Amino acid sequence: MPSRLLYSLWTYEFEKRLSHRFFYPTLHLMKFSKYHNKRTVVDGITFDSRHEAQRYQELKLLERAGEVFNLRLQVPYELMPTTKVNGETFRSIKYVADFVYEDKTGQTVVEDAKGMRTDVYKMKRKLMAYTHGIIIKEV
Description:
- By secondary structure, this protein is α+β, with helices and mostly antiparallel strands.
- It is 40% helix and 31% strand.
- Strand 1 and strand 2 form a beta hairpin.
């Protein structure tokens, strides 16, 4: 008799634990970032990561101090225009820089706040150097 009672308690506990796994269905439906970045809002601007938002704050301080000028965000560069080959259309390839500014010497600096260097980014970085002659500064 005691073994039957233990068995029923064990199955109850097992079923409870098993059902607990499926108790929060929203947990499985929530979207998580592939690289674990968290969107952050600073000065009413939404940034893709905390790192990018922090770099924006640093650049704003440098701009106030007169170290950098003409700070711009999310500046697009066309790396390859839309082309048609044998009737098939290929979309243009674009790179969007996180920050573009001018330093004290008047040189334009293109900056990207990088956490993970993906293969696509590496390719676009090379295309940027080839087509525009601009080396992207990674922070």
